[in-house]
Each structure stands twice: as structure tokens, then as C-alpha cells.
Amino acid sequence: MLAAVEEGVATLTIRNPAKRNAMTPAMWRRVPELLEDLAADPAVRVLVLTGGSGTFCAGADISALRGGEQESRGLAVAAEEALAAFPRPTLAAVRGHCVGGGCQLAVACDLRFAAGDALFGVTPAKLGIVYPASATRRLVSLTGPATAKYLLFSGELIGAERALRTGLVDEVHPGDGLGGRVAEFARLLASRSQLTQAAAKEFADGLARGPADPERIAHWDRQARESGEAAEGVAAFLERRAPAFTWPLTGR
């Protein structure tokens, strides 16, 4: 796993080229550590998760499951939850295979952009593994129960266009155009108000589990009043300039 930060955009790259970036136990453990470091960096405004060597992630390293499937599943869930809880917008940039634990990580991101050759699959039925409840809930919230059951029951792979139709991905681009589009969109996200993004992320994720907490609504209303973000946004619009949003995520 490699992490780099440039112009507010952190890129976390999955690397295990000998096994199509399959996740070893050490790699699963590294994900929450890297995310904690990136979340503490005030320069980071957006996180992009991708894979090296032309593919995203082929899932868990099957050879590691001989040491205990439940341990490996626990490590995957910990990585998934750390990614879902990352306080800035997250975007998965998917090329090639995005299967099993790789799909679990992509679904834990806020958004997913895919190359036209990307293949998606959720494959525990091929191994007799119970897919985690957290990952199942996130999959259902994106695709609906029917598509989630299709993927979970069959373990079949689907292409990028079908993934787009079912809501599993948000955009599909030719392979040679994906990197440029991801970079462009990540820069756009980095230019927007972190206050708006943080509140929207909390509300959107929370509403998938039930009604919004009145105390959290009051918290964000207070942040909006005290931050001056709206005044800056309106002034920038009227003055035809880029807004200089200053609300800091750290410590809020």
C-alpha cells in the first residue's frame, strides 16, 4: 500500500502485482493505519483509492485464508469501516478486476469511477464464506436488494456498464481517460466547502441506517452559523471569483 498527497488530493494505491493486488493480512492491517495518518493531515481534502499495475484489487489473498477465514474477514471489515469513516470525500478509481475484498473496499468509498474494462464481483459464495453484514448493507444501499443478491448468490462478474446501470459505479470512462477524469473531479472536490461535504457525508451515511439525530443536525447548524462559509460562498459568486473556504475539518 502506497500513499501520496498532492494539491489536497491523497492517493492510496493497492499494490501486490504478483497476485493482481490481492490483499494480504499485512495489507489489510495497513489500510486503517494509513487512513488515520491521512485523516490527521489538514492538507488532505480528498482521498482517491486505486490499484497499481492496471487493476484495482482481486480480493483477499486466498492462500492467507488457510490461517483462518474469520481472522481475514475481521481484518477486511476493519479496513472497510476505516475507509467508510474517513472524514473527507473518498473516490475509488477502478481499472481491471474489482472483486471480493476489492469490491468491499470500493463500495466503502463515497464514489466509484470505472474504466470501461473494469469487472466487478462479490465472490464469497465460491468459497462458502459469509459476507459481512456491514459490506452487505453498503452493497444493498447502492444497488438495491435484487442486484446485491445476484452478486452475492452467484459470485459472477459484471462489466462496468452493468455496474453503472445498477448504481454500483457513478461514472464509466475509456481506460485512457479515467486518470484524467479522476484527477479533474478530485480537484473539483478539493475546491468545495469541507463544511458542506462533512455534513452531507454524515447525513447521507446516517440516513441509510435511520432518522437523523437531532443533536447532530443542531451541531451542523451551529457550524454553518459560526463558520462564515455561506457568506464567503455568496460573496465569491457575486464577485465572480473562486471562493476561499476556510472551515477546518480537524478538531470539529
Care to give the gist of this entry?
By secondary structure, the chain is an alpha/beta fold. The protein contains 10 helices and 9 strands.
If you had to describe this structure to a student in words, what would you say it looks like?
- The protein has a six-stranded mixed sheet, sandwiched between helices.
- Strand 3, helix 2 and strand 4 (90-94) form a beta-alpha-beta unit.
- It has helices at residues 25-39, 69-84, 101-108, 133-143, 145-154, 160-166, 175-191, 194-207, 214-227, 229-238; strands spanning 2-6, 9-14, 46-51, 90-94, 97-99, 111-115, 119-121, 158-159, 171-173.
- Helix content is 48%, strand content 15%.
- Helix 1 (25-39) runs parallel beside helix 2 and helix 2 runs parallel beside helix 3.
- The model has no long low-confidence stretch (mean pLDDT 93).
- It is an alpha/beta fold and 252 residues long.
Question: Which features would summarize this protein structure in a list?
Answer:
about 50% helix, six-stranded mixed beta sheet, about 15% strand, alpha/beta, 10 helices, three-stranded mixed beta sheet, single chain, about 250 residues
